[in-house]
């Protein structure tokens, strides 16, 4: 949530999960990072692979007014990314930001920490540690036998080296499943 009460949908390129912890990478001058630091809540929406163009439609929009100096020639300020992305807000159960209705999986989370990395890139980004409170998943994506996402039914949009991909065929299953 931005200071003016609008929702800042922030497409991201870096995330990983372990248990209920999801770690997000955000550019240090982004409005999304400032919002996470101030508000402490977020929804992590997972688009399906065929929704990559919706994500790309908002990729050069920023909630920061004016845009950061190093982005000013490529980014445009807006406090409404819903319309250009073709997204619909859906109320969340336990956090202020709404979910994106078009996404089949949502994680409502709270920020547990924002970390400055070590090394030469530390001024360029921050590591945001979140804790997932609630997971929403479309019923057709949940394997009822195990109560987890059916990986045969879901093909998430993946952002790899600045290109969009879906998933390929399953190569195998872990014994821990």
TrEMBL record:
This is Flavin reductase family protein. It comes from Nocardia aurantiaca. The keyword RNA-binding does not apply. Signal peptide: none annotated. SUPFAM superfamilies: FMN-binding split barrel (SSF50475). Pfam families: Flavin_Reduct. One of its GO terms (molecular function) is oxidoreductase activity, acting on the CH-NH group of donors, NAD or NADP as acceptor. Residues 10-140 form the Flavin reductase like domain. Belongs to the flavoredoxin family. Its cofactor is FMN. It comes from the Bacteria. InterPro entries: Flavin_Rdtase-like_dom, Flavoredoxin, Split_barrel_FMN-bd. Keywords: Flavoprotein.
